[in-house]
Design a protein that fits this description.
Number of helices: 10
Shape: globular
Number of strands: 6
Strand content: 5-15%
Order of helices and strands: HHEHHHEHHEHEEHEH
Structural class: alpha/beta
Number of domains: 1
Distance between the termini: 42 Å
Radius of gyration: 19 Å
């Protein structure tokens, strides 16, 4: 592209911004450029999560070293979870935009932010391989993309970790998780996933999804990956409804219209 073409492209983008002013996907505030997806305030809300966190589920703690009430009743089959922030406010709206508004670029940017979180950087280097939670082919055709893969790509870009998108597949078109209680979510995912190909021995695999609610999806993925040879599984997610009883967390996702 020569200088004249570059100038024309910039002018075209400026005109587009003037005719169709870009707005924040989370709060609706005006943005400076169409290439942006969230405003500065919403990014600050999503990323400003100071203080100690639970080593298992990433839930914010009042005092470091205290027992976590968020995951005390969990029975995780994964070793630990790294979660960017609470499923509320700007984060909830951002995940909604990723899943239902064709905002793949936002998913990649959120994945990059997950990988760049200062207190996660060293821990993420313990992971050998990233695998996104797969969609059933019919669901992916309907949506047009896998939001978990978008997140995983951004995370891989930020960390330099390898990404494998074809090792884990969803073989059953399960019912939508958002419409089920905690027990039904577990039952719904029995035999839903399978491994295709060889899992590298003695690996720590980071399974990537948008929201960690009951842990049922991550547990189902962890089971089949460990049977195939993985030694450790970590759950990597953008958000979680921390500090809420499991059934309340499921209801929150129902009200948001989650798939």
């Amino acid at each position: 592209m020569n200088k004249l073409q570059q100038a024309a492209a910039k002018l075209g983008l400026a005109l587009l911004d003037f005719v169709y002013p870009p707005h924040c996907l989370a709060c609706g505030a005006a943005l400076r450029a169409a290439r942006e997806n969230l405003c500065v305030g919403c990014w600050e809300e999503i990323l400003d999560q100071p203080g100690p966190r639970c080593r298992l589920c990433s839930c914010p703690l009042d005092v470091e070293g205290t027992d976590c009430t968020n995951c005390s009743s969990w029975e995780p089959e994964f070793e630990r979870a790294l979660v960017l922030g609470p499923f509320a406010g700007a984060m909830q709206q951002a995940v909604h935009a990723l899943k239902f508004m064709q905002q793949q670029a936002l998913g990649m940017e959120l994945g990059r932010r997950l990988g760049q979180r200062p207190d996660f950087v060293a821990d993420l280097q313990q992971i050998d391989l990233l695998i996104p939670v797969p969609l059933h082919p019919a669901r992916q055709r309907e949506r047009g993309y896998n939001q978990s893969l978008c997140i995983a790509r951004g995370l891989a870009e930020a960390t330099g970790l390898p990404l494998e998108n074809n090792l884990l597949v969803r073989r059953l078109a399960t019912r939508q998780q958002a419409k089920l209680d905690a027990r039904a979510r577990r039952d719904n995912l029995l035999a839903a996933f399978r491994v295709v190909g060889a899992v590298p021995a003695h690996t720590c695999i980071g399974v990537v999804d948008d929201v960690l609610t009951t842990g049922a999806t991550f547990n189902a993925c962890a089971r089949v990956l460990q049977r195939a040879g993985a030694c450790r599984i970590w759950a990597l997610a953008l958000a979680s409804p921390f500090h809420q009883p499991i059934d309340q967390a499921v209801n929150l996702r129902n009200r948001a219209g989650w798939a």
